[in-house]
Amino acid sequence: MPEPILEIDALEVSYGPIRALRGCSLAVAAGETVVVVGANGAGKTTLLRAISNVLPHAAGEVRFAGQPTRGQRADQLARAGLLQVPEGRGIIARLSVAENLQLAWAMRPGNSTFAQACLPVFERFPRLQERLNQRAGSMSGGEQQMLALARAIICPPRVLLVDEPSLGLSPVMVSEVFSVLRAFRAAGVTILLVEQNVRQALGIADRAYVLRQGSIVAEGSGSSMLADPAMLRYYLGST
Amino acid sequence: MLAEQIINGIVLGSMYALVAIGYTLVFGVLDKLNFAHGETFMLGGFVAVAASALGAPLWVAFPCALLICGALGLVVELLSFRKFRSADAQVTAALSSLALGLIFIDLVQKYYGSEPVPLELPLAVRTATLSVAGIEIAQIKLAILAIAVLLMAGLHVLVNHTRVGRNIRAVAESPLAASLLGIHVRLVTQQTFVIASALAGIAGVMLAMRTGYAASDIGFTFGIKALAIMAIGGMGDLRGAMLGGILVGVVEALAVQFGFGKLGEIVVWILMILVLLVRPGGLFSTSSERRA
Predict the structure, then answer these.
(1) Per-domain residue ranges of chain A
(2) Handedness of CA A103, A106, A109, A112 (dihedral sign)
(3) Contact A102 B166 (CB under 8 A)
(4) Does A103 contact B185 at a Cβ distance shorter than 8 Å?
(5) What b-and-e string marks burial along A52-84, b requiring 16 or more CB atoms within 10 Å of the CB?
(6) Are the CB atoms for B279 and B232 separated by under 8 Å?
(7) Distance (Å, whole) CA A158 – CA A109
(8) Among A17, A215, B160, B246, which residue has the least CB neighbours within 10 Å?
(9) B28-31 — which CB contacts under 8 Å span 24+ positions?
């Protein structure tokens, strides 16, 4: 594997007395799509929040582009290219669609105009252009997820962290979300995706990890994991 | 006479609104009440007294209060809110800011005593009137109203049409989502405190000019009423604070006009209790925007 752009090394996170991550280690190489699957409560969201330094680390280290991220704030990491689309989409519902896009544009390095930065977004998501002046929270769940993912188009990340993008969406919208992620992958975006929708997620994964009770318990290529339903059932319960 | 009282009410209400806006801005961003806010407002009046004692022209009090009270907002944030960020620290932050406000009062009373301190206004400023549609209105009232309207319009533009305002609204809805969108949440919090406190300071100058004195206890009277107005307008609702301030000012003035006197103040508290019971999102909220 080439030099990883994101390394998680024996990471531990606690909520009071509860240890949500127990020495979790994984790595993502540039250009790779890595998926972490796990049952509800396995620690997937905790993992991504800890990577973005939203949650404090009890032990262990996260390295982004070779540098430890300790001491950096979540917004600094985001502007450095460690971009997260959090669980529940992470859009600002009371702001307009345009204002949500402006937030992403504001952290983009360089000096492109907002209109320029939006062009590729509208090409991919014409619905967002139609709804520019609408409150983001008034859109459907699927449209909101598209708005959330649009931040990665406006502000190209070095690593894109995506937390359960299929949550609460209709099957049609879930397919749409995965086709967007597939397009990101084809464009060379480095992705770390955590999902409960195991089959779809493994389908786009170069490599995958299974997270169980805060620890990585299995690792392999996406296709080899898909080919081993017995193992997945064992770790995840029914899939 | 009735028209004059309504104008008095609007002038009073515009000052209520400026103070209520500060409560609601901070509450919107932090979900916490800043109990030092009424005292920051009170200090604005003493900035005017101090500037006047140093021989400065009247208008100098406004930029001075803006700077001094704005800076004080940073102190309040640092001492009473910075460390108490979690959602369950509401009581801690409220108590800490209350104590800080009481210290402000003690310091003022140490230098100025507990009696109201007169603010010397030039005779021309006190007596000049303007005739509008047959009603004689003191120019000082009109000036106060004009400044208040300008400040509220400016705040509206700042909050709804600038990057600073966009960040404030984003943090108000979700600090987590905002930080993942590259927003420095602590910086936005500090900006919010500075804006809220500077507006309160200016309102303090206005009240001192309107009444002719600065009093160290107005945080408990006028300031607490502004807190009630925030609740009436809907906690975190800027437009509600503005409209609520004017509404309460006019209701109080009319109560005086019709001989209810002090009873007029009771209206504010009854209104607050009723709004909290019946429309917890605020008098002007639409059902979809109602806060939990």
Answers:
(1) 1-81+157-239, 88-156
(2) positive
(3) yes
(4) no
(5) bbbbebeebebbbbeeebeebbbbebbbbbbbb
(6) no
(7) 12
(8) A17
(9) B28/B168, B28/B172, B28/B192, B28/B235, B28/B236, B28/B237, B28/B238, B29/B168, B29/B171, B29/B172, B29/B188, B29/B189, B29/B192, B30/B81, B30/B93, B30/B189, B30/B192, B31/B87, B31/B90
* Residues of B contacting chain A (CB within 8 angstroms): 163, 166-167, 169-170, 173-174, 176-185, 289
3-class secondary structure, A96: strand
Q: Note the ipTM here.
A: 0.94
Q: In whole numbers, what is the pLDDT of chain B averaged over residues?
A: 90
Q: Quick check: A60 contacting B, CB < 8 Å?
A: no
CATH fold for domain A1-81+157-239 = Rossmann fold (3.40.50)
Min distance B171 CA to chain A CA atoms (Å): 9
- Mind telling me how many Å the CA of A128 is from chain B's nearest CA? 18
**Min distance A90 CA to chain B CA atoms (Å):** 5
Best probe of the A interface among B163, B166, B181, B289, by most A CBs < 10 A, is B181
* pLDDT level of residue A239 (50, 70, 90 thresholds): very low
What strand order describes the sheet that includes A215-221?
A82-85, A159-163, A191-195, A33-37, A207-212, A215-221
Strands A33-37 and A191-195: parallel
d(CA A136, CA A134): 6
Do the Cβ atoms of B182 and A93 come within 8 Å?
A: no
| For residue B8, pLDDT beyond 60 | yes
